[in-house]
Predict the structure of Tetracycline resistance protein from transposon.
Amino acid sequence: MTAIKVAIIGAGPSGCMLARMLHLGGVDVTVFEGEASPDFRGQGGTLDLHTKTGLAAMSEAGLFEEFEKHARYDGQYAAVVDKNLKYHMVRGVEDRSLGERPEIDRSRLREILINSLPTGMVRWGHRLKAIEGKTLVFGNTTASGFDLVVGADGAWSKVRQAIDPDFQPQYTGVAMTELNIPDAESTAPEIHKIVNRGSIFASNEGQRVSYQQMGDGSICIYASTVRTDPDWMDPEKCGYDTSDLESTKRALELEFKDWCPPLREALSLAQGRCIPRSLHILPIAAKWKHRPGVTLIGDAAHLMTPHAGEGVNQALEDAMLLARTIVDTVDSGNDIDDEVVGFEEAMRARVGPVQQLAYDLCQCWMFTPGAPKSVMPKVISRHVQSQAPLIMQPLLVAGVHAYFFVKYMLWP
């Protein structure tokens, strides 16, 4: 048996899941997080965990029972509509064709994971600046003596930069603004009824808005448009202050002026903060030269857009599989770097097709004329291909196209 000390950079879902599993396996692990506390900033919207990835990781970590206390199985309702609120697809609460996909607020998931760790395992206020040799350099201190450093530090990972400075995210051409409607049942009853405790995904050419029910009764809104400049939120470029809610709502009112009243007016009912974003991705199945003693998981390794709903699920599976690799290495006495190289190769092979799915769906929803109607057969077919056995895919895809052909012939 070989003793291994592990440093994890980032206390997001993947970093905390990895720490939890390594702790259960008896591995010495420390998590370094740049935020001052877990409540330092908001944690975004809602996540759906999938049977074979996110839910499997929660179960293996001994956290499924705690997850169940906060999971919303009625949140599995989802519908795709156009700007006129015409329904193109509905996934009911009882639909299990894609397996279980219960919803949980991102902030609640992170709370479950952090609370599962021993006090002091997460060192808050440690924002990584660089890795110099085997030394971690933070804003006002350093740390060393680790056999493995795991970058779970997200899209703009400093660990990834230390491995390969040229391995950087690429802008997708999609701009997004996050809004929130608190207590939606009282403050926005019409959109609350439409969302039906789940999610509504509304699309038009070059435009997409998702409305998602949160555990606290609020509705989280993500309004997306096509913009060529990743720095679109600069007031001199977009023409308004993207940090000011009222200015943002006026801009969105103009952007979505021809959308039906229930979908458009929901934007005007938002309260509190507004968060502008530019969506980036990492190259699909990108391969980097392994740096001894360092590896990546989650968004740091394979950042993708949210259109496939797979980001956090793949990140949690990364954590589960890397934890197994490390614990097995401790037990066997094998070389940790040899084992991590094998993990990285397997991760690329596993996640590459998922990255491709997310990319394809982003192209369908945001860059295809006539969306959503024109892309529904392809979108559903891509989901089928990602789930079904290879031998069944041609038949199922043909069935999907036939279904939508008949649907749009009878109900144009």
